[in-house]
Design brief:
This protein is an alpha+beta fold. Helices cover about 20% and strands about 35% of the residues. It is elongated, with a radius of gyration of 22 Å.
Length: about 160
């Protein structure tokens, strides 16, 4: 087996597996990135994806965002989790008056999320880490939080009176 320079010039990663099972690989990327790519490929094969995934370490990382160092979520897939950081919004009405004794203000609540595999790359809504495609993280329809920023215990609401 032999990986030619020409083959490598046209690809970021070349893997050859011989009939005898010997593996030879060569890459224009770091070992960590290569391992990520291979994990991604293995996941997509297991999931039955018809299309091969592309590399996880992407343009977002190249653009200066930090890849998330969390290898795992604090809970298995499908578990409800919350963002550790509160999302603030203006709130008013009878519920606010009943709970806080004033007509309105800013209500901070954690995002309600579910642990899912990232279908694509996302920027974490809490810390701006890059969530790699396939990485377990917390998401809902509009938000994505990396493994560093989710918790299995719902943080308490906070309230600030309108100034
Ligand atoms: Zn993170
Ligand atoms: Zn984060």
């Amino acid at each position: 087996m032999d990986i030619t320079q020409h083959g490598l010039d046209r690809a970021d990663l070349v893997v050859l597996v011989g009939h005898d099972g010997l593996v030879e690989w060569s890459a224009n990327r770091s070992r960590v990135e290569v391992a990520d790519m291979l994990h991604d490929i293995a996941d997509s094969i297991e999931d039955g994806d018809p299309v091969m995934t592309t590399a996880t370490a992407s343009g977002l990382v190249a653009a200066g965002y930090q890849p998330c160092p969390a290898q795992d979520a604090p809970a298995p897939q499908g578990t409800p989790v919350w963002s550790a950081r509160l999302e603030w919004s203006l709130a008013s009405g009878t519920m606010i008056r009943a709970r806080y004794g004033v007509g309105g203000g800013e209500l901070g609540q954690p995002a309600t999320l579910t642990v899912r595999k990232a279908a694509s790359e996302y920027i974490c809504g809490g810390c701006r880490h890059v969530i790699a495609r396939g990485a377990p993280h917390g998401s809902n329809a509009g938000a994505h939080y990396c493994g560093c920023c989710i918790t299995t215990v719902r943080p308490a609401d906070q309230f600030k009176k309108a100034a």
